[in-house]
Amino acid sequence: MTEIRTPRLILRRWTDDDLAPMADINTDPAVMRWIGDGSALSLEQTAEEIEEWEEEWDDEGFGLFAVELLASGELAGCVGLSVPGFLPEAAHEVAISWRLGRQYWGQGYASEAAQAVLEFALQDRGLDRVIAVNRLGHEASDNVLRKLGMAFERETTHPEYGHALTVYSIDLTEYQA
Do 51 and 41 form a contact (C-beta atoms < 8 A)? Predict the structure, then answer.
């Protein structure tokens, strides 16, 4: 079982106990505003999402980790790597992404977890490049991307929902942890 520990977090594979807390995160309109079409996800949709993330682990050797607070054991959200299949122009890429519950925003958890995932991408998975696809105007995620050393690459449009997206990238051969 793949697990990464940071000073404050455990990044790990998903368990059945994670469904309810992740579903709570996915029903928060402030969290979901920047994801997909902006709609909240039901418990059933969250279960499907976690199942897809776990399948990607099996198929690709990477996926989205459950993010657990080391001190309390609370599920804070998810962070990890995936193939952005929703964006045909980037379907051959590997993207980093995260989603944390609102109560965990502004505390550096996203940056801490994403930094660990970039190291995982480089050291454990041998990737030489990682992208991030962000909704235009999502300043908090833009700030995390800059902290990670990722550079703006281009703007594009979500093929299904029509909103503007930004694509950032980092060449992991030049990455400095």
Answer: no
Rounded distance, CA 162 to CA 157, Å? 6
Tens digit of pLDDT per residue, the chain (177 long)?
A: 589 999 999 999 999 999 999 999 999 999 999 999 999 999 999 999 999 999 999 999 999 999 999 999 999 999 999 999 899 999 899 999 999 999 999 999 999 999 999 999 988 899 999 999 999 999 999 999 999 999 999 999 999 999 999 999 999 777 666
Burial classification of residue 7, based on how many CB atoms lie within 10 Å of its CB (0-12 exposed, 13-18 middle, 19 or more buried): exposed
Cα–Cα distance measured from residue 172 to residue 64, given in angstroms and rounded to the nearest whole number: 19
